[in-house]
Amino acid sequence: xxxxxxxxxxxxxxxxxxxxxxxxxxxxxxxxxxxxxxxxxxxxxxxxxxxxxxxxxxxxxxxxxxxxxxxxxxxxxxxxxxxxxxxxxxxxxxxxxxxxxxxxxxxxxxxxxxxxxxxxxxxxxxxxxxxxxxxxxxx
Length: 139
Ligand code: IDP
Ligand code: MG
Known about the structure:
This protein is α+β, with helices and mostly antiparallel strands. 39% of the residues lie in helices and 17% in strands. It contains 7 helices and 4 strands; from the N terminus they run E-H-H-E-H-H-E-H-H-E-H. The longest helix has 11 residues. The model has no long low-confidence stretch (mean pLDDT 97). The chain binds inosine-5'-diphosphate (IDP) and magnesium ion (MG). The site of inosine-5'-diphosphate (IDP) has 9 residues, from loops.
């Protein structure tokens, strides 16, 4: 699998860093092959983050993810899953490396600007959660 799902979360959209995130993707040899803006319902956010349903932050996280518009993208490239997670930085922005998206724009462990799939299996599930095959370009 050389595709991953990226989300610019509601805080990232509110902070007007959509262009910044896209610039970092495109300037690191990764290609956007699908993209749209939408707002999830609470139920859709719960389905997306179902793997975290036992976590103490699940209710708050899914409220947050449904709180405003998000930008979802499919990104393609060599080693894209690891590469995009490297561009994002650690979950906790305080631990994120210099120059990463979360280090530069996040202000909260929950509201951390971006999401990226963490394995080929989750990428397949997460891409199909938002896009059908006709919505994904081949470039
Ligand atoms: P990831 O987004 O870096 O893969 P995960 O552990 O998969 O991190 O957690 C999913 C999302 O849940 C995080 O991006 C963040 O928004 C939120 N989250 C993770 N850990 C915490 C926490 O300890 N408190 C509050 N929110 C958290
Ligand atoms: Mg994760």
